[in-house]
Amino acid sequence: MSVWEPILVLLGVTAAGVAALYGLGALLAARREPLETGPFAGGLPPREHAVSRFHVRWYPVTMLFLAFDMEMLFMYPWVRVVNEMGAPAVIEMFLFLGILFAAVTYAWREGALRWA
Fold it and tell me: Where in the cell is it found (predicted)?
């Protein structure tokens, strides 16, 4: 049982800490109705419902964002190993960037970046 004692003590301290934080939050919470408060950071009342539909023009922008997000996801590990891999790693990254550039050029040609 001596192996499990530190784990049980840690679980007990964690549970007591969580319970104390919830109790402190309930004790210090403001007493008001949730619908009586205004928007948090905007300052203006919302024009639309929060679950309203988005215009279809946002979806190509989202796809472009994901393309650049994937680029950064692949570039970080590449930067970490480029010194060890040498020229083949540089060639592969430029090939990847070329494919990404072709995709962005296609999206631009198709009007994904136009708002009108």
Answer: Cell membrane; Membrane
